[in-house]
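Good day; I would like, with your permission, to put a structural problem before you. A protein sequence and the structure tokens that stand for its backbone fold form the material at issue. The record follows directly beneath this note:
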Amino acid sequence: MHTESIEQWMHEHTFGQDAKKSGERRTLVVIAVTALTMLVEIAAGMAFGSMALLADGLHMASHAAALTVSAFAYYYTRRHAKSPRFNFGTGKVNSLAAFASAVMLVLFAFVMATKSLQRFFEPVAIGFNHAILVAVLGLVVNGFCLYILGGNESGLGGHDHGHSHDHGPGHTDHNLWSAYLHVLADALTSLLAIFALLGGKFFGLIWLDPAMGMVGAVLVIRWSWKLLCASSHVLLDMQAPETLREKIMGAIESEGDNRISDLHVWAVGEGIYAAEISLVSSEPLETEAYYALLPGRLGIVHITVEARRCVAGNGGAKSAS
């Protein structure tokens, strides 16, 4: 076989990872807004001697750092999408960054819970006016950032992460989801703080401040757990959702007496999958025919098919999966 003839059977493994995603642009905008707010708060805190403003500015810095991780993951994914070092492209880089961000969120939540628990037993004097100003400013900034990131595309708009992703590749962006969660956690902290501070200022309910901190920590851990599960599912090459595997089996076994004996389907990125299919049949089809049987909307970007001939007189081909 000549070298020229084999090229038509070869394909790249970028799977669209070399394209710039809308989530990357939005994350960069949010980083810019967060960094600007951080600088303003730190400068104001130092100029007016406000520890509340200074502390919130440093808190903003931690979130800007986390968002920078997400932005770098987008860049790295695009930059190395065509590198032969990655067997199935760089789709998992975003999931890796999302997993790391989720771990950071869990640690942040535990710090919140620890500090809040400490405040129950060791209450401190609160400068309500400055603290409320900072909380309102944080809520406004984070609300704007949440609007930019958009809840639906980040996976928080009621989307079921257990289905087969029939909408096609890239339907769920774990990296964008992690960025959204960081901003949402900050917005929640500001909202609960405003509620607690108003209660303390006007009704003397000082205990509301640590109580709301505990509530916020629990919610952040709950959201982070969902992201940890979704991203680790991709990183650990776990089997794709059962609904997707059923559709593959149904499509392949709809032709003749084809029976799938072994099926492995796993994510190589968010919403894109690779599949290895072993089947038996008394009259196996050409490999291209099996490819044609699979619906294109399933998000399968890499397929390997192994067909073995069986003797129909020995009980016929039966599924061993």
